[in-house]
Amino acid sequence: MGAVRLPAVSRLPFDASKILGPPLPAEDAPLTVAQLCARVKSSLDAGLPASVRVAGEVSGFQDRTHWYFSLKDAAALINCVMFASHARRAGFTPKSGQQVVIVAKIDFYPPGGRVSLIVEKIEPVGAGARDLALKQLIEEVRALGWLDPARKRPLPTFPRRIAVVTSVTGAAIRDVLVTMQKRCAAVGVLTLDVRVQGDRTVTEVVQSLRFLSVNAAALGLDAVLLTRGGGSTEDLWAFNDRAVAEAVVNCSIPVVAAIGHETDTSLAELVADERCATPTQAAMRLTPDAAALRRQVLSHESRLDLLLSRLNREHRQRLLLAARGLRAAFQTSLHRARSRVEDLSLRLARRSPAAVHARTVARLGSACRDLAAAMRAQLARRAPDPLLATLDRALRARLREQAARTDSAARHLHALSPLRVLERGYSVTMRADGRVVRAPGDVGPGEAIQTRVAEGVIKSVVWDTTEPPTSKRTPAHRPKPKPPPAPPAPGLFG
């Protein structure tokens, strides 16, 4: 960019004749250097305004935390210094040969006899220079990582409260509040009134963002909306300030920026966690749609009902299958137990005294018949012999005697048989596992039992049990059984 020539200052911006002070002393009383420098400083302080606006070309620029450079034109040159606190808010870094306009205080340093300018603000000359400065600032913040998408934070899905930093007299706040009320009235709104154009904009916006960052938790804030309506480039330029961008980046909660119209893009929007084209769009982005949420809840409710119904059917089928399996297993176990009881009953019946006696009598009868047949056959082959007749009589007597003894033993065994006891009206109660029940404590309520009587088996379930009284009872006197009669003397065969 070519240099812009500025008109030279033709006169001082004050009346020098009014600040000359008292007349100089005579030549025989000269001033000291310190006195002269003091008069120069007092004259400058009294005759010039607190700050002056000066245009010129940057020369010898040095960035050493503070900025040091000279400002010159075709006829003059003056040294300048811009301290870091002001340099950070410059928005761009000047270069040697660049035309700028500065706002500065005039400073005279007596020990060195130098006049310099303490720069408070610096701007490039012309719109093109300003855009160039903005591009330089964007590259600077890009190098710092402020534009990195990975740095930006996600917005809350269901914010409790949102802070809106804007002018309460502008159109943007009305659009934001109306949109938030329509979409979800449950979201709280905290409004911070700031200037959105002019010299105080940067200071008030930065202070508001810092306040919200520090007090976000105490105020219950989940996000910040920095916004203003449309305007000229000059009106929106404050949101390109580096201090505003830094405050947005350092905010402790997510920041959404919507500055101007859709075609306007500021540095604050670039570094924000999310940029929206208009204030209305920003309000829609931050606020959940209550109607859509209701539809979503109803949809989820329907899906949940279907899922629960399906799970209910599946579990019911599983229970039915389990019940069938349990019933089948119970029937199988019951059948096995019944078969075992019947088998034991048959074995018990076979081993009863009556059955043993019957089998013994049958064997003895068969043996007697066989013996008699054999004897008759042998006697038939021999001639009649008196001795054989005697032997036959003795044998028959012996057989009758043994039969009588067998009948007596059978009657005695029959009297002692458990079946005989059952025939007298008694019974035997057994558990499902075949063990005999001897006391009420052997079974419990709900337990299956079998009672054997003389004519069969009775199956039942225990309803309740009662213990016998604790009083001692004297056992009944039982007469001693008579000893069996002595066997007769042995005969011919024993």
Q: What is Rg?
A: 62 Å
Number of domain modules: 4
Query: How many β-strands, per DSSP?
Result: 13
Work out the helicity level: 40-55%
- Using the coordinates shown, work out and report the CATH topology of the largest domain: Rossmann fold
Biggest sheet, strands in spatial order?
1-2-3-5-4
Structural class: alpha/beta
Low-confidence stretches: 1-14, 16-20, 488-494
Put simply, the count of helices is: 13
Rounded average pLDDT: 82
CATH-defined superfamily of the largest domain: Succinyl-CoA synthetase domains
Question: What is the name of the CATH class of the largest domain?
Answer: Alpha Beta
What fraction of the residues are assigned to beta strands by DSSP? 15-25%
Give the SSE string: HEEEHEEHEHEHEHHEHEHHHHHEEE
What's the CATH architecture of the largest domain?
A: 3-Layer(aba) Sandwich
Distance between the termini: 157 Å
From the spread of the alpha carbons, the general shape counts as rod-shaped
Give a quick account of the main beta sheet: strands, pairing sense, barrel closure: 5 strands, mixed, barrel
Q: Can you walk me through this structure?
A:
- The protein is an alpha/beta fold and 494 residues long.
- It folds into 4 domains: 16-142, OB fold (Dihydrolipoamide Acetyltransferase, E2P) (Beta Barrel); 144-288, Succinyl-CoA synthetase domains (Rossmann fold); 353-416; 422-461, no CATH class.
- The chain has 13 helices and 13 strands.
- The strands form 3 sheets. Strands 1-2-3-5-4 form a 5-stranded mixed β-barrel. Strands 7-6-8-9-10 form a 5-stranded parallel sheet, with helices on both faces. A 3-stranded antiparallel sheet has the order 11-12-13.
- A hairpin with a 4-residue loop joins β4 (99-109) and β5 (114-124).
- The longest helix is centred in the middle third of the chain and has 61 residues, at 290-350.
